[in-house]
Amino acid sequence: MQMDRSDKLQDNPNIPADPESGPMKAIPTYALYGELSENLPPDRLHCESIADRSRLYNWEIKPHRHEAFFQILHIRGGSGVAQFEATTVPIRPPCIITVPPLAVHGFRFSRNIQGSVITIVEKYLDTILAGAPQLQPRLALPQLHRFHARSTEARRVDQLFQTIVGEFGGNAPWRTAAIHASLATALILAARAQAAPDPGNPGPVNRKMLHLQRFRALLDRSFRTHKSVAFYAGELGITPTQLNRVCREVLGKSALGAINARLLLEAERDLVYTFIGVKEIALSLGFSDAAYFSRFFAKQKRCTPTQFREQAQQALRREQAG
Q1: Which domains does the chain have, with CATH numbers?
Q2: Pick from 72, 82, 65: which is nearest to 30 by CA?
Q3: Cα–Cα dist 53/62, whole Å
Q4: For residue 49, what are the β-bridge partners?
Q5: What is the pLDDT of residue 200?
Q6: Dihedrals phi, psi of 99, to nearest 5 degrees
Q7: Which residue would you say has higher pLDDT here, 178 or 2?
Q8: Which of 94, 162, 229, 268 could form a disulfide with 154 if both were Cys (CB 3.0 to 4.6 A apart)?
Q9: Cα distances (angstroms) measured from residue 178 to each of 21, 119, 146, 166, 175
Q10: Which residues lie closer than 8 Å to 98 by C-beta, 6 or more apart?
Q11: With 80 as the cut, is the pLDDT of residue 26 above it?
């Protein structure tokens, strides 16, 4: 859900532009934390009121997608319509809407809408839900999870989101743990309220999304070993041409561009959040030598790894000082 002002919108910083990709896709891909696009990969959670942002866009959020963010909307009042790809679903509270990365979605809200939206980096959510691995497949496609009004479950969900909103806006001890626990419980209650999606006939759009999500999961496990596009396609049971087509349609870049982007993201994280030397980072990412890694990094970021680290550290100091 695109909730930033138009002057802050830009492509997701986690996946850099692929010079081999075609023209920009019609469905825009947004990043929530545009200010970090040239420095830090955003490893955090954000929470805000749906009304506070949607009123800036006359209560309508145009169809778009996020490349690395998962979103959870809790609606406790008002009404609206959710659009998932070409399907529209009426929004009637109380309900939770879950939107995984890469899913095309948009919203039209009534002016009396009440609720909150949580935006979280996908891998961060994976960590929160590590204790419930069976839950994650339930969240692979966008869904609206309805609760019976005045039911025990609806009251519990409302209390959980009140806790999340309150903790997010405060600085009490163990606030992160409280947010994580409340979010995991809310998603469990949402999954219980929704019948499992039928994987037997997902349809062409959902099949494409499932291929992408499986590709990203495989990539997270194997990116350090520099596997080929043909390897990933074989693991998915499709051809390299099909994998490239899906990547270009959804990500706006080739499968090789996505592989290189995953390597780059991990390099950025190591440079920002550790004091490991460039040579050690290169070896940990499967590069044969530091010079090759530096050339790869500079081609993607237009600066050396050392320069990127210095810029990121300066940005961190400014953020801490502000």
Answers
A1: 6-193 (2.60.120.280), 203-321 (1.10.10.60)
A2: 65
A3: 13
A4: 116
A5: 37
A6: -130, 110
A7: 178
A8: 94
A9: 42, 16, 24, 10, 5
A10: 70, 71, 72, 73, 139, 142, 143, 145, 187, 190
A11: no
